[in-house]
Amino acid sequence: MKKVIVTGAGGNLGTAMVKKFIDSGYYVIATVSSGNTVGVYDGNSNLEVHAVDAENETAVNNFMSSIISKHTALDAVLMLIGGFSMGTIENSGLPEIQKMLSLNFHTAYFFARPAFNHMISGGRGGRLIFIGAVPAIDDRSGFDMLPYSLSKNAVVKLAKILNSKGQEKM
Fold first, then answer.
1. Which CA distances in Å does 48 have to 1, 44, 100, 108?
2. What is the pLDDT of residues 115-155, one digit of tens each?
3. In terms of Cα–Cα distance, which of 32, 24, 23 is closest to 5?
4. pTM for the predicted model, two decimal places
5. Which residues have CB under 8 Å from 1's CB, separation 6+?
6. Residues of the domain holding 150
7. How many structural domains compose the chain?
């Protein structure tokens, strides 16, 4: 049975992805923030739910080590955790940029790093799925949501870099 990790599984997109993958015959390892559930398939034998502080690199590393030890092979990791905020260069400062980077880029990076290393070292490959946004790649649409746009641009760049290296290795 193929195995997939879905981060942010308690959100709208995460819940839809959990449903889609379980309906497609996958075993889903879902991460949620503390106190959240997936709801859709709670109690399903093909669903494992874990509360993980995704903004804490050590917590994510511990979780990923545990999952890799338990399941050995991962077919995909969907990094769906994120946040949104409006703000321009005039009214956004370091706190807003740090918040968006933490929610959008850091969470993706923390899960992608151990997943990528595991997939490459195991020789099986796999898929890392990131969530970008039009403002990350379209300069005009990003102006009114600058911290968000910058953080999503970093996610898009990370995906491109890992994809390039992954294709080279496989």
1. 14, 8, 28, 20
2. 999 999 877 789 999 999 898 888 888 999 999 999 999 99
3. 32
4. 0.92
5. 25, 26, 27, 46
6. 3-169
7. 1
